[in-house]
């Protein structure tokens, strides 16, 4: 049996059959669409209840399960898949904190077409954060699926009661169990989470996390089917796939795959940083946090979803941002519409397209830019929660103010949270003043960490440089898919420079820049928003199908493939012909 010396502790093995399967924890598609699966005792949910909710919230956070979205009728399916789960905490050499790894092995594992799908969670989500992509594609066809949370996740540590999350998802006090994340300091305040406060630089290790998960997957297949062992890259095809941060993670893994573990890679909307090309996430997220509220006041965005309030009026804080930028000397005009036009041109000159800005109104209205920037700044500078850059910190949210989370809120975090707070009863505090533009002081400070040259800025730039992806081997089949309307990870900063770099270096990746697709399929269920867009997941499934046919049926891997010409969904339900495939 293969060694897994990177797993210092136990491997949990659980079975999931009948009303508790691998893919939906027994909920099926209709259950996944419904209200959150309840906890019989909200302060002490069972391990089974936590897992079911974690799977459901991961589905809801990634896929469009709305009544017009077509999931389960136009594309996708959620059949019942019985099997076993193998779960552990793994360690990258030198890391302070572990990453969680999990392997789902279906009972009907296809011994004739030995396949392991390896994936990493999107965003900063927990271990099931890629189940709607990797799980639903791989498990029904008989592949095992290996997941990593890539050093992120929702194993929040609460200093109020000195508790974190154990391997089974339950809350546990420091010293009573091995925790998903346990800050080194014995004392602190507020709430800390692994991505921002581990003292590591998890993003720089995402490729290593994926490759460890692949090795863990092979070892768990040895355990599941000892009569068929050993499972190796020579006799078991390993397909890497992921979306958003997970897409960036599998591209990192492709560039670090010295053992030739991977047989093919499909990356959706990847957060990828290419050496000397494109722009880093921290750069354009802090720019967006500062400039987009004003730019979106431009008349061209008057009918854009989220760019105006519920009554069609400008957001007062966004109007105030234009005035703030003028007061700082960054805008010359004194009238609002001229200020908005200046801010718009500033972003255009930096590479933002109209499509990206239009869709980014959603991320701006939901305050994602500030949330992302504050967390990533802390991660890049390796800060604890009580010493975050720019005066930020996380704490329980009680009546809009910092406080102590109640037991029920705390117990639900591992299952319900999406990764980076705020949300689920946790607030992001600090970096504000009492002005009409209260968030500007913190945003200015975060931006200076990129534009400045002091010790912290230099340290942050060094951390970003460590994210640069490496070249994959020449014969590795690769496919990058990205929505043309992505407003969170615009293609001009991410996939396009990466693909151009690969081609300049003699690689031949397939690339689809998909019309009308954007970053968050789950947002397509929001009224008015889905009318303009198409889901990205069906194209990812199609790419994985073609990779399967290449690896197992001998179909040639194309040098290029025309991008489907889809049409926006409109106000009615999604139809198959709209996808253009």
From TrEMBL:
InterPro entries cross-referenced by the UniProt entry: AB_hydrolase_fold, OHBut_olig_hydro_put
Single GO BP term: butyrate metabolic process
Coiled coil: none
GO cellular component: extracellular space
Protein known as: Hydrogenase
GO molecular function, one term: hydroxybutyrate-dimer hydrolase activity
Keywords, ordered alphabetically: Hydrolase
